[in-house]
Amino acid sequence: MIHPKDTLKQMIDINKSICANAFNNMSTIHDQMEKVVNIYIGQASGMSEEGKKAVREWASMYRKGFEDFKKLVEDNFAKMESFFQDKK
């Protein structure tokens, strides 16, 4: 017999896996775009050093925001999983 608690745990596991895959894909895309941007600003002779610094800071802030959001999601999945663990 399938228990509702087991079904919910499976749903959480599936969603956790989907989120992990999405975060890995987003991280890979960000890494590639950051490389492209760094190549571009390295070769952009008309761009001021202040502008280049701003672009680098923007990429850094994006990475930090992404990592913070990822950690928040992972922490919340851990909280949900702890709810479904058997208490003995």
Task: Explain how this protein is built.
The protein is mostly helical. It has a domain at 50-83. Helices cover 86% and strands 0% of the residues. It is built from 2 helices and no strands. Helix 1 (4-43) runs antiparallel to helix 2. It is elongated and about 70 Å long. The chain starts with a helix and ends with a helix.
Estimated structural class:
mainly alpha
Compute the number of helices: 2
Query: How many whole angstroms does the radius of gyration measure?
Result: 20 Å
| Helicity, as a percent range | over 70%
Order of helices and strands: HH
Q: State which percent range the strand residues make up.
A: under 5%
Low-pLDDT ranges: none
